[in-house]
Write a sequence for this structure.
């Protein structure tokens, strides 16, 4: 099931052991190499410091937020050696420019949809310039259209070009590349 990004921002983190709130997830930790939400930046309720909740430690999604075993699943950023690179990047999708072809600006990412089970970002919603948004509305980009993800922009295949069936299979199996 796809969920819009707003369901992953500003969420309470509830402990199953104590039955109360232990932290507050402020924003997702996005891996730009494969567009997967690896975890969440959190504000600890007790010590008022930033911690990380990895998605593998989330037991359930509740109406109140995320359910975890207890406070011990929240990690300090320096302890997550495997995730150091994406922690340093702190990649944010909203506001990222989207281009097609040779620098043809399409607009900026205004929202995205996440597959709830896998935590992979499946769709980007691009807000186009004022004139285009009045005539054509918002542009929806599926992950198989993404060619390259950089810190400055996201490059996609031209929306006017059809995707061949063989190309879909190849692109869905490979992750978008990040350039530095």
């Amino acid at each position: 099931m796809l969920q819009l990004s707003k369901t992953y921002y500003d969420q309470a983190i509830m402990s199953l052991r104590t039955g109360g709130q232990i932290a507050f997830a402020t924003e997702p930790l996005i891996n730009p190499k494969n567009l997967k939400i690896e975890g969440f930046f959190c504000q600890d309720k007790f010590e008022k410091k930033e911690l990380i909740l990895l998605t593998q430690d989330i037991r359930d999604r509740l109406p109140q937020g995320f359910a975890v075993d207890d406070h011990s699943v929240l990690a300090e950023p320096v302890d997550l050696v495997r995730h150091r690179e994406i922690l340093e990047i702190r990649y944010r999708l909203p506001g990222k420019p989207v281009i097609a072809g040779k620098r043809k600006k399409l607009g900026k990412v205004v929202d995205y949809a996440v597959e709830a089970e896998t935590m992979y970002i499946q769709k980007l919603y691009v807000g186009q310039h004022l004139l285009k948004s009045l005539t054509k509305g918002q542009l929806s980009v599926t992950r198989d259209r993404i060619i390259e993800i950089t810190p400055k922009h996201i490059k996609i295949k031209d929306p006017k070009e059809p995707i061949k069936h063989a190309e879909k299979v190849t692109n869905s199996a490979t992750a978008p590349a990040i350039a530095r």
Confidence is low (pLDDT under 50) at residues 166-175. The helical segments are 84-89, 130-136, 165-173. DSSP finds three helices and 14 strands in the chain. The first strand starts at residue 2 and ends at 4.
